[in-house]
Amino acid sequence: MNETISCQGRPLQQSDLCWLRKVVQDHPAWSRHRITKHICTEWEWRTHCGQLKTFAARSMIDKLEQQGLLDLPAIRVSCRRPARPPFPKGFNAPKLKSIEKSLQDLTPLSFLIPTPNSFEDNCIGYYLSRHHYLGFNRTVGENIKYLVRDRCGHDIACLLFGSAAWKTNPRDSFIGWDRKTRETNINFITNNTRFLILPYVRVPHLGSHILGGIMRRIQQDWINKYAHPIYMVETFVEHNLFTGTCYKAANWRCVGQTKGRSRQDRYAKLSVPLKDILLYPLTKKFRQALCQRAV
Fold first, then answer.
1. pLDDT digits (tens, 9 = 90+) for 122-167
2. pLDDT surpassing 80 at residue 81
3. Cα angle, residue 66 at apex, residues 140 and 50 outer, rounded to 5°
4. How far apart are CA 279 and CA 135, in angstroms?
5. For residue 87, what are the CA distances in angstroms to 12, 120, 126?
6. What is the pTM (predicted TM-score) of this model?
7. Which residues lie closer than 8 Å to 261 by C-beta, 6 or more apart?
8. Which residues, including other chains, have CB under 8 Å from residue 283's CB and lie 6 or more apart?
9. Residue 188 dihedral angles phi and psi, to the nearest 5°
10. pLDDT tier at 265 (50, 70, 90 boundaries)?
11. Edge-to-edge strands of the sheet including 232-238?
């Protein structure tokens, strides 16, 4: 019986599981990271720009281990590199200056995509760590950061876009996704995980203006960085704290709410705040674009 299972969006035959077990058994000295690199190389599991999808492969083998389908070597805690802090110790961020003007006095705005570990990149880490209620979250997988400046070069906001939520029924129903189509096309959506207007900036209509500017350029920015387009942007607004006014003013559409569960909630025991699900299609034919690639 050659039963097929699905893990991390990839169908696995029993022959695939046998091969994975043999890789682990034949290389007892290999770390989990080394195993994932070997899997990606042998299966040609790469991103659109040719990089090995080691994060997806690592997530897959960890899930197989949790399901009792694969025995992995122990995690080598001593070999783990400490997570890079959001900004270096002793980092001198720009001095904050109160800005209370009309939007017209600030425009045109500039949208900077910082080079990793640059001063601007560290500024984003600093601002989110100090001023965003959720703090800074380390991005994994495809992502883009933006540092927004006014016409005088003052930092006024920052945004972070990363991997889309793996599954959320209101979004999937709105697009018309079934499970297989979602697993095939999830990388054509990005999630606006952070949006911060710096606390010293008080400018009416600034939030929706920034979102409008980002939405007009993010698809091309994604193509430039990752060699493939995105067709929709999503965000999750904590229902008991915010109303999402700036998103709605920028023509984002609320399609429902989350169920108050976390993606780490395997046994439905955790309770997290309800969030409104807001979507912004980047093309009129987003449904065709997000569904046509399924095989």
1. 999 999 999 999 998 777 789 999 999 999 999 999 999 999 998 9
2. no
3. 35
4. 23
5. 40, 10, 6
6. 0.78
7. 268, 270, 271, 272
8. 219, 231, 289
9. -95, 10
10. very low
11. 110-112, 144-149, 155-163, 189-197, 232-238, 275-281, 253-257
